[in-house]
Amino acid sequence: MEGDRLPALATELVQRQPAVIIAGTTPAALAARAATASIPIVFNTPDDPVGVGLVASLARPGGNATGVHQFNTALGAKQLGLLRELVPSAAWVGLLVNPNNSNAAETMTREVTAAAATMGVEIGVVRAGDRSEIGAAFATLVRNRADALVLGADSFFLGRRLQLATLATRHAIPAVYNAREFPEAGGLMSYGASLAEVFRYLGAYTVRILKGDKPADLPVVQSTKLELVINHETARILGLTVPDKLLAIADEVIE
Questions:
Q1: 41-45 and 21-23: which strand pairing?
Q2: pLDDT for 137-171, tens place per residue?
Q3: Which of 86, 127, 224, 232 has its CA 20 to 30 A from that of 63?
Q4: Which residues, in sequence order, are CB contacts of 105 under 8 Å at separation 6+?
Q5: What is the mean pLDDT of residues 46-73?
């Protein structure tokens, strides 16, 4: 599994003595944190940085790591609600998570399951940690006649966005994702943090550290810019009519 290689990769990277390590996922940040207590680390994580042990506090990180906290793993309830507005008949909804990223998977499962209980929706959790498992997960969704799908927040899934969007459309499963890159690749709809904003923060903090600032003195940035993006063409392919309410609040509608 990809996640199993992170400790070795982090150790190899530390041996090269970089000026800064940029870690784009929680597992990568934790692996880097375990490998070095001196080389500065700038991370992007959807998880609580204090809760997972990356920093002592958001205001005063206190160690060699700081970065961006974006809230995608805590948006499962909102994403499910938006999906139900688009597909009000959905009664059995799949939730796809990456078992290699246990923190994100557990948070998403908890958030989505709790929200589903209030909506009278049944959630079926499926897991995929590599390319072949994505295909197997969709086979399970098809076998269980999933009415819709919520995709867990994970950088692995972002890297496989074309595969995921293609499979969801091929099997006529309306899906909500967590980044605009998914509907840009043909996915139906996304609601989540702006990755462009996140990357700007990461770049700015990296520059500050290279100029002499210490990670311990740089508060963790909380990225709060959330955006709703709808692919109208994909909705038509799936035979869905996007409610005017969703079109009105969307940050972008892809035609």
A1: parallel
A2: 999 999 999 999 999 988 889 999 999 999 999 99
A3: 224
A4: 97, 98, 99, 127, 152, 154
A5: 92
Query: What CATH code is carried by the domain that includes residue 40?
Result: 3.40.50.2300
Residues 157 and 114 in one domain: yes
99 with 180, same domain?
Answer: yes
Task: State whether 116 and 17 are in the same domain.
Answer: no
Please state the pTM of the whole predicted model.
0.86
- pLDDT score for 57: 96
The reported pLDDT for the residue numbered 1 is: 44
Please state the length of the chain: 255
Mean pLDDT of 59-69: 96
Report the candidate in 189, 141, 143, 145 with the shortest Cα–Cα distance to residue 167.
141
Average pLDDT over residues 93-111: 92
Query: How many domains, in total, are found in the chain?
Result: 2
Mark whether 113 and 231 lie in a shared domain: yes
Cα–Cα dist 183/176, whole Å? 9
The pLDDT of residue 3 is 57
Tell me the C-alpha distance between 177 and 152, whole Å. Answer: 8
Select from 147, 144, 140, 143 the least CA-distant residue to 121. 147
Range of the domain at 214: 2-71+194-225
- Burial classification of residue 211, based on how many CB atoms lie within 10 Å of its CB (0-12 exposed, 13-18 middle, 19 or more buried): exposed
Q: Are 185 and 165 in contact (CB under 8 A)?
A: yes
